[in-house]
Amino acid sequence: MANLIATKNAGSVVFSDVNLDVNSESHLELVFNEDSINKSVVTILGTRKKTRVFRRNFGSYLLDILFDPMDPITTERIKREIITAIEEWEPRIVLKNTEVLPDYPNQQYYVSLEYQIPALGNKSATFTFNLATG
Question: What is the distance between the alpha carbons of residues 130 and 108, in angstroms, rounded to a whole number?
Fold first, then answer.
């Protein structure tokens, strides 16, 4: 898991992480709260299990499932894998709703995660992203 920092700021907890999406023109920067959590979710889902030397179980099988045929069964498997991986590796959030919708013409899945952050007074957040198939 990425290096996560929780700091006290005016009585509330603030999560921060290093933004790994830097290019040659940008500087190293921090992301906070939902952005930090969303970056962690991307890392979890984008890391194949058994690829981290000292954390063999970290990650998910999501990237392997994306090579399966686009059908309702695969859509449900993707949804279950996302839920399982996030519940196992992102303890800062409570998933409230997970939606995975296939976009057959564009060969991708639309994913929407609705979650709460207990450490931030059960603040609600939504993270949406697309998953391209193999």
Answer: 7
Sequence-distant (6+) residues with CB within 8 A of 25 are none
Structure tokens at 52: 């981290």
Q: How far is the CA of 23 from the CAs of 1, 46, 47, 69, 84, in angstroms?
A: 22, 19, 21, 34, 31
Mind listing the pLDDT tens digit for each residue in 85-126?
A: 999 999 999 999 999 999 999 999 999 999 999 999 999 999
**In angstroms, rounded to a whole number, what is the distance separating the alpha carbons of residues 87 and 68?**
23
Q: Is the overall model pTM greater than 0.85, yes or no?
A: no
Number of separate domains in the chain: 1
**CATH code where residue 111 lies:** 3.10.450.40
